Amino acid sequence: MGANARAIAVIGAGWAGCAAAVELARAGHKVTLLEAARTLGGRARRVETDRARLDNGQHILLGAYSESLRLMQLTSVDREQALLTLPLQMRYPANTNGMDFVAPSLPLPAPLHLLAALIKAKGLLREDKLSLARFATAARWMGWTLHADCSVSELLQRFDQTERLIRLMWRPLCLAALNTPPERASAQIFLNVLRDSLGARRRRASDMLLPRADLSRLLPEAAAAYVEARGGAVRSGAKVQGIRSIEGRLWQLDISGAAVGGTWSTYFSGVVIATGAAQAAALLHELPGHDTSHVCSQLTAFEPEAITTIYLQYDASVRLDLPFYALRDDPFKHHYGQFVFDRGQLDAAQAGLLAVVISAAGTVAAQPQELLAEAVAVQLAADFLRPELGRPAWFKVITEKRATYACSPGLVRPGNATGLPGLMLAGDYTAGDYPATLEAAVRSGVAAAALLQRGAAQ
Description:
Elements: E1 7-11, H1 15-26, E2 30-35, E3 46-48, E4 53-55, E5 61-62, H2 66-74, H3 79-82, E6 83-86, E7 89-91, E8 100-102, H4 112-120, H5 126-141, H6 152-158, H7 163-178, H8 187-196, E9 208-211, H9 215-218, H10 220-229, E10 233-236, E11 239-246, E12 250-257, E13 262-268, E14 270-273, H11 277-285, H12 293-299, E15 304-313, E16 324-326, E17 339-342, E18 353-359, H13 362-365, H14 369-384, E19 394-405, E20 423-425, H15 438-457
Parallel strand pairs: 1-2, 1-14, 2-10, 14-20
Antiparallel strand pairs: 3-4, 5-9, 6-9, 7-8, 11-12, 12-13, 15-18, 15-19, 16-17, 17-18
């Protein structure tokens, strides 16, 4: 440790907390990473079920996720082994009257690869393709920036997007990226995502990256090993019950759990709160001697959005033609699935396992799990014309009720700084260009670590 090294606590070992911990450890600080749960990863983690070891949700990363990819490299995660890289695509089962849009494998520079994909796309009429081209051109001309935020639906209507293009491309992209339906999703945040993927100058920024490793191994556990290798400590099963400022110089944390042998209090010169928004508000609200009402009001204003993942296990010989497909959801027909992933093509140990994702799943997730799984299996059997998909050997429904927040127009998100020296926030809910994604969490953790170090240097 250098002469300027400080003892710093990071509360929460989700992706934001792990990113902050890595950056602080890299700078030479003695980091203690505290996680209330037994498994690292927060809302993107591995779970042990009665059926198998699964993720609590299926994720897609993008080539534009520069900070996530940088930290994976820094923590010695082998990208080729951890992620399957695919060109940008939106592909539906052949008989569902969908579309087949995929960027060419030829090394065309951006945005020519997208133009080539649009020209070759199947299932779109000429008016649909012209509509998409106009939108992309106008968005570039605008610098991907709106003077006033509005809903994604209003944005698409303003640019005369066709009904078919909205149904087959824009709506699924909005749900996947923002986990919020287009009619109440922020157009500006949606444009930010499109800017850094579809509109990026780097051709690989639009690549889609599918995790091969489970979500806890993809970064959190590698981050924990990185912190420990640099003299830090990682404590799972350790819940922070309270925070107190000591003479404006130190922070006292009251910690409970089996990992610390009951109840334990210790002191740090800096703290990053990287829990969920509600937990962060609770810790700040109970902070004696400080007015944190403003930031607490922001933290408690978020409306949660759920994501449901239905895992369906078939015989190991069952395989889809592609690693994943978009699905046409129609709740009136009990077609709830929006994307399906062939986990066997990502991890050979999961052969025959399909994962079906339902974003913004609040009302759907309220159904009995057996009925929901049965409806999704019947949907797959009909979409792929494969009756065997209607008869899985077993299923597992996992709903993350607070997977994200509703990313609504004009939503005010708190900054990383709490206004108190040596105390920072990190999480996908803090102010930034991106919605609640893994990259947003990582960027927030990196920013919180930088602010903490900057404040110490002053």
